[in-house]
Amino acid sequence: MQIIVAAVVLVALIAWIVVKNDEMSGLGRNVKAGTLRHPHGKLVRAKATTVIPEEAPLANRIKRSMPFISSVAIIAVCVVLYVCDFTVLGHSSSQLLATLSSTGIVALIIAAEATLRAPEAARTFWTYVYALVAGVVCALVVWEVVAAAASMSFSEESTLLVYGIVTCVCYMLGSGACVALLPSKVTFERTFEDGAKRSITVSTRSAAYSAYVAMMGPSPTKED
After folding, report:
1. What is residue 222's predicted lDDT score, i.e. its pLDDT?
2. Contact status, residue 170 vs residue 80, Cβ threshold 8 Å
3. How far apart are the C-alpha atoms of 153 and 146, rounded to whole Å?
4. Region label for 201, one of left (φ > 0), alpha (ψ between -120 and 50) or beta (otherwise)
5. Which of 102, 113, 165, 202 could form a disulfide with 70 if both were Cys (CB 3.0 to 4.6 A apart)?
């Protein structure tokens, strides 16, 4: 498991370095054509090919990003399994409820809905990864506090149900908040001094984004 995690982190780091290198290509004071950083020389023009967004209030972004549907559906399934196994059938344990409460597929589903709720330009693989990690971290932190209280206040069976519900809520809050806080994305067509044209999608919070907008002259039409 550690090897897999290390490999994923390494690949993500390399990909981030490559992307950032491309974003800054042609920018800066000392631009030398043909180098790894500036293969096409100085950037002479940039043009937005998607609308430059105006950031909505944080409260609106959080409301829009919360994956309510999948979270409520999974919580409902947990309750149904609990009622069927422990109340109706009189079982002393529920393998299905235990599996659903602890399996990673719940986090995957909730993070997927959160990603789909993001603006179209932000529905990327990396948004999904960020939402997934945020949901899991939120669940891990919160559950450490809830677990102790639940174990003292509820029966073993009820604790399992509480665990499932609390975990789903944490996944929802973590993934939804993460997507809401992520910056918007804008695609630009760049023209370099050697005539090469390259398109790139950048975050509205990146240094490259500010440089691209400054090269466009008057601010383009904005929309929510």
Report:
1. 46
2. no
3. 11
4. beta
5. 113
C-alpha distances out from residue 82 to 125, 142, 147, Å:
34, 22, 18
Beta-bridge partners for 115: none
- Tell me how far apart the alpha carbons of residues 210 and 106 are, in angstroms, rounded to a whole number: 38
The single-letter code of the amino acid at 129 is V
C-beta separation of 85 from 97 below 8 A = yes
Half-sphere exposure (CA, 13 Å, Cβ side) for 135? 32
- More confident: 10 or 6: 10
Do 177 and 134 meet the contact criterion of CB atoms below 8 Å apart? yes
User: Checking DSSP bridges between strand 222-223 and strand 52-53, what pairing results, if any?
Assistant: parallel
- Count Cα neighbours of 187 within 13 Å in the Cβ-side half-sphere: 7
- Angle of helix 156-181 relative to helix 58-65, nearest 10 degrees? 130
Per-residue model confidence as pLDDT tens digits over 142-180? 877 766 665 555 555 567 777 778 888 899 999 999 999
pTM comes to 0.65
* Half-sphere exposure in the Cβ direction for 169 (13 Å, CA): 10
